[in-house]
Model the fold of this input.
Amino acid sequence: MPVTEAAAEVRIQPGQSIQDALDACAPGAVLRLAEGAYEGSLVIGRPDVALVGAGAGRTVIVPGPVAPTAVPPLHDAPAGVVSGITAHGVSGVRVEGLTVRGFSGAGVYAHTATDLRLVDVESVANKVWGLYVRESSKVEVLRCRAEGSQYGGIALAFCSAADALIADCEATANAFGVFVDNSSRARVVRNRSHGNAAGVLLLHQTYEGELPGGVADVLVADNDITGNTLASGGDDPDAPGFAGPPISGVGIGAIGVRRVAVVGNRLHGNAPGGPSVMGAALVLGSSAEWGGSDSVDNSFEWNTITGNTPFDVQLGTDPGNQRFRNNVVGSSQPEAIDGCGP
Done:
């Protein structure tokens, strides 16, 4: 396998070391992984590198030798967990066309990355997070799939100016399908989120020892959010959403958010499979009592929210500070909300 500092493209076969190629390649290199399984975690520490597989389900990264990394510890994870692919402090990284399966941390963990693109990446049964992007900017997550993680399937965390696009993805069997956690300037569009505890969760909440945050200037549009019935939260360390509040049956939860637009989404068949602090498919609430903020200046337009249990829409904050227009809604709490009706 020829690998030199000047190589523009490196082709790698199963049994060869991806990490050796990552360590040796020059900025601008494209590492092309043939179909097959590759054992071991990977660390991308050089800028402008592309890691391109033969397609999700065809090129698969599974646990094996652990590549050392100085990346900060993964949020909500026990010490010593291992993520499949880590990108730390780099710009211009692209990961495309592969599956990451069965790691104890995240499938992909990006920290302080800029110009990051995840395209056709599948995260399956990675214990804590699926595709987890933290303190990063200029992020694209396109046509990805995330299944079976304890917290977020696709997550932006503490990205204060994310300039992020999460589009045409699928999230299932996670506590939170798409999780915008203390992150702003993001677009969540044309995704399918089903079988989670919450399909899409936008949350401004303070955490001990964490950065200050907020959620503002986010667009959630044209998503299909259906059948989110998983139960999360509680004291079982192996359960979804461990140590968090009980959440289940939520389509879109927007808690402590500002200038968020929720437009043209379809929410149907979301019902709690266990206790839940939220009681509807669309929940708008305040996080001020947890150190967050009230939800103000948000827009909800042209959404179809029907056939959910126990309510289609639930407002836990002043509706006078929001805009509701042309939403098709079967039931709500309070019973009458201007701009929401049959």
